[in-house]
User: What shape does this take?
Amino acid sequence: MMRMAGTPQEQCMTIRVLLADDNALFREGLASLLAQCPAAEMVGQAKDAADVVRKSIVLRPDVVLLDLAMPLGGGVVATQAVLAERPEVAVCILTISEQDADLFAAIRAGARGYLVKTISIDELCSALTLLADGGSVITPHLAARLLEEFAARSPTPQAQGPSRITFLSPREREVLRLAAMGQSNKGIAAELVIAENTVKVHLRNILDKLQLRNRQQAAAFAVQEGLVRDVRAHDRELDSR
Assistant: This one.
């Protein structure tokens, strides 16, 4: 969970970040840059897959920034292992790879973010806040590829009979639509004027009812069902932040 920092009046949330990359120079450089993020606290660094799993248990970060090219297992395996121990943590891949196969593998493993290393520090600070708040972040030009891929792999309404959208209440449909557009839990709560915990309950119920694994699959479902009519809307939402 995010920690409260400063006085009660300041109400400043501190996001605990664990950085995992086999390049020590990159780790140190990014750690210095993250000092510019008022809400972020670097709690540790890891050099390989085994190290990041161990430190995620001991240091209890809110967000793990994880390279794909990790020794002793790789970033996808490390993501699965971290989430097996701490399913509540937000794992975000930070990589040079823009290959669809790497993106899809990371999301299937449970990563809630996929960012390329050309990202600016301001963008990364915003991404950390969104991840810690329960949202998902993907480098914009890759986001449409992901949604299109999941939508293409989903059964067509004709093949699956009555649409599963009928399983959802009107409120759950609205929560799903906003989540598919990239809104964080806090953003959804503010727009619908409900508690953030209520949003989390709705999202959990949505995934259970639709038999989906994560928000990315839910977003693809929303696109397929017409709740979000343009997959590039997700890109524009990310670009506006």
